[in-house]
Structures are given as C-alpha cells and as structure tokens.
Amino acid sequence: MLRLTIVSLALALTAVSQTATSPSVTQPREGDLQIRINGPVHVAANDTASAVWVVNHDATIDGVVREGLGVINGTARITGRVEGGVVVVNGRLELAPGARIERDVMLYRSVMTRADDVVIAGVVHNETGFSLGAAAAWLVWLSFTIVVVLAGLVFAELGPRTLTGSAGYEAAHSGRAALAALLAVATVPALAFASFATVIGIPLGLTLLFVVIPALSFLGYLVSGSALGRMLVARLSATGAWTSRYRTIVVGLLTLQVLVALPVVGGLIGLIASLLGVGALIARSWSERERTVPTPVPVSVRA
Fold it and tell me: Pick the residue with more confidence: 36 or 166?
C-alpha cells in the first residue's frame, strides 16, 4: 500500500509538470525540501537536503539527502548518501562507487545500474505495473462473491418465477439460449452506437452501454448460477430435500465463482455463463409472450 501511494503521488506530480517549466539547476540549501519540475537538481558533495523530488529531469546527489529521493521521467545519479528511500518512476537509477541508500529502493518501469561497493540497506522493489498481492486478490474475489450471492438471493425472493423459469429454460434449451445471446450481442451494442449518430439519441446510447448491457450481463450470470445449482442439487440430493430455490442459487453461484477464479479459463467461463443466462432470459420471455397471445375465437354468423 505504501508503494502504491508513492507511485500515485509520483504520477500526480507528473501531471502537474505539464504546466510548469524551470530550466535552471537548483542548488538545495540546508534542510530544503526540493520539488523540481522540468529542471535538474544537484546536491553538491558538502550539501544536505531534506528531500528531493524531480519531475521530467535528472537529480544528481553527491551530498546527503536525509528523507528520500524521487525522480519521475529522468535519471537519478547518486554518489553520496540517501538516508531515506529512493523512488524512480519511468527513469533510470545510477549508483556510482561509494553511494549509499539507507532504506528501500522502488523502481517503477525503471532500470538500475550499481557499482560493486554500493550499499543498499533496504530492499529493491522492481515493479512493471500496478499489481495486487495474493491476499488482496483473495479479498476482492471474496467481496464480489458475497455481492453475487446476495444479489442471487434477492433475485430468488423478488422474481422467483423469472429466475427459476429462465434457469430451467437454459438447462433444457441451451441451443436456443445461445442463439438468443448471439442475437443480443449483435444487436444491442450496434443499436447503442447507432444512437450516437444524433444528439437526441446520445442518452439512449449511453443508457444501453452503461446500464442495460451491464445489468443484463449480471442478471444472466445469476441465471446461469441458478441453472448450475439446479444441476448440482439434483445430483447431490436424490430426496429433493435441497431443492429450495435459495439453496439452489447459493450452491450454483458459489460453484460458478470458484470456476471463474481459475487461471486462464476463468474469464471465458464467466463470459459464457453471462451470455447463456442473457439468452435464456430473452428466449424464455419471448416464448412466454407467444403463449399469452390470445387465440382469436371464430364468430359464427347466423343467417
């Protein structure tokens, strides 16, 4: 988290640098905090600075930096001593003979060269991009799983007929569900982008892209989870004691979440589940509509 905060600050300073220019070399005074944008900083051999940040240029440290050194889009050259940490973003770190860093070094999309007698008391972190650790990834998965299961339970409570009917339709008519999903994929995004051709159609296009499509995908995922749960419960419980719609959707969604977490194929499984669920929702709704259309009653005409 600390490393992520440091890099975020670095990127913010980079954004500020677009509006600031300062070409001359800065000579820090004793105890200075130096933030230099579009200009170099040189800490001479007999000088001491509190902290140094340089954006879009180089920093040369022949003296002492007590707190820390940060360089963004430039080169940090150290022959002296940095008593804090060193952060280099999208640049280069050059450690000459006699250089000493008392704490950690973080290189974000950067390279480092060092002499044999260089001392780094901390740890060198070399990052090529923002990444989540295993614990953070597990926490994200667990949080999303809880949200998905709760949403499934709400769906089972408020729309039991739609949920169970669509799940059953997906299991019994997977081919029709897949065809309906393909038609939806081909038509809904095309309609959304076509709406941008006119000013009055822009709100419709934005609603389709950012509301309708995500909502349908999420509902389709819930339907596929319910269909998977029905299949698993039917296999595990011959007596039918576990056929409650709540248990069914919990079992199905938990299983689907585990499958989605699999490396390489997990994303594809989630995509297919969402598409099949959307197709089942659409195809079942259409079939129900056809059933509810009243059949015309012939009227006899008496002579």
Answer: 166
